[in-house]
Amino acid sequence: MFLIPKINLKKFDPERCCFVLNEFAAAEFSSAVEMLFAAKVVNDKKLSIGFMRHALDEYKHCFIFTGIKNQIILEHQINKKELKFVPSHIYNKGYVYKDYFIFEKKKLNDFAVFIGANEGIAEKKLITFLNHLKEHKPLASKKIQEILKDEERHADYSLRFARNNNSFFSYKIKLAKEKTLSFFRHIYANSLNKFSFIFNPILIIILLVISFVTHFLKLKKNITDDDVMKNIEFNSIT
Fold first, then answer.
1. What is the pTM of this model?
2. Which DSSP state fits 83?
3. What is the per-residue pLDDT across 20-68, written as a single tens digit (0 to 9) for each?
4. Is 77 left (phi over 0), alpha (psi -120 to 50) or beta?
5. What is the DSSP secondary structure assignment for residue 82, as one 8-state letter?
6. Residues 123, 155: contact at Cβ < 8 Å?
7. Cα(24)–Cα(22) distance, rounded to whole angstroms?
8. Rounded CA gap, 220 and 64, in Å?
9. pLDDT at residue 155 greater than cutoff 70
């Protein structure tokens, strides 16, 4: 799991709850895709099997989160298209990069730290969400408790591998780095809605400026072309 939105809900909001579940599902699906790629390219049979098992767990979690979300949508008669899980949206939301996989950019030891750190952070956020959900949806919370066991195991395996394959100080520095980066990624995700009123106008202004400059350059090119045509002696054309 990578990028998860803020989930400190004070009262049960079915629509908001479904949004969070959808984001958890997207994160799990994305993690499964990354694990499948790692399983395919790693030159170690045991590690490949471990990555595949990890991927299967993540796909299972995605299915569970989506099932809980769909049940809440049905119970509360929510009609929101944006709550539909669409696999291709994982690119737009930044869970998976379009041009590369994380495993391609990190050494195996660093990848293990990355997975362990992010699984641990996601686990904490899921616990916060679970504590809120179990007051209103006890049956659904039991399913999420099973997911937490898997997440704890994933983090433990990844960090154990990282500890065994990095020096003590290297491991600590890498772990601190990944936790810090993940912290800022979550701040960014949590701030998207809060600061959209600032960044959206700036984006619109930038697009307008680009559009104006493009139009000006095209206009200048047309004028230049006209001037060139005026200077041509048609009688010289044979």
1. 0.74
2. G
3. 899 899 999 999 999 999 999 999 999 999 999 999 999 999 999 999 9
4. left
5. G
6. yes
7. 5
8. 58
9. yes
